[in-house]
Design a protein that fits this description.
- It comes from Paracoccus fistulariae.
- The chain is α/β, with parallel strands linked by helices.
- The chain has one domain: Rossmann fold (3-Layer(aba) Sandwich), CATH 3.40.50.620.
- Helices cover about 35% and strands about 15% of the residues.
- It is globular.
């Protein structure tokens, strides 16, 4: 195992939540906790990305974002990791393939907000991602209806599980996905950054 990577045992159910976490906030914690409950996950790894190809503006330094994310958490089941930087992967499809090679026998679930499902069809090799591991989608404010009607949701409709089967998601053969509702948090990293810049 490469030094500095998270530990996991075969048979574990682990959610992967990717993002810039610029900065991490309570909304990230809320969707993580909701995903752990709904999908019966043993762990959730926050994959703090070196940079998001779909965002024009570069994020704050990686070490700063990781430190900020870790400072928010007190649940040892939520692990903040710079695995993409260590593996030198930039695209989600490459990260998932590398993680699945490194951790045979672990049941990974990709986690995303419904706002990401809306643009999922713009991700590099998005169909490959959907065929690689199950996907858990958490409803975000103002994006539930658009997410349900998105290109990706329509193309993947036949593999959508009912909410009542959400706990089975980690063990389902992909493609498989479910959209769950959760208490709404209007917090966003963009809004927090803008508020900080206004104060400065």
């Amino acid at each position: 195992m490469t030094e500095g990577l998270p530990l996991a045992r075969p048979g574990m159910k682990i959610g992967l939540l990717g993002g810039s976490f610029d900065p991490a906030h309570e909304g990230h914690v809320n969707i993580t906790e909701a995903a752990m409950r709904a999908f019966r996950l043993d762990r959730v790894w926050w994959l703090v990305t070196p940079g998001n190809p779909l965002k024009a503006r570069g994020p704050a330094p990686l070490a700063q974002r990781i430190a900020g994310a870790r400072a928010m958490l007190n649940d040892p089941r939520i692990v903040v990791t710079d695995i993409e930087s260590r593996l030198q992967t930039r695209m989600t499809a490459d990260t998932i393939a590398a993680v699945q090679r490194l951790y045979p026998g672990v049941h990974f679930v990709w986690l995303m907000g419904s706002d990401n499902l809306i643009q999922f069809d713009r991700w590099d090799r998005w169909r490959e991602i959907a065929e690689s591991l199950p996907i858990g989608v958490m409803a975000r404010p103002g994006s539930r209806l658009a997410a349900r009607n998105s290109v990706a949701a329509n193309r993947l409709q036949r593999w959508r599980l009912p909410v009542a089967q959400a706990a089975l998601l980690p063990l389902r053969k992909p493609p498989a996905w479910v959209l769950i509702n959760l208490p709404m948090s209007k917090l966003s990293s963009t809004a927090l950054r803008q508020a900080k810049e206004t104060k400065e």
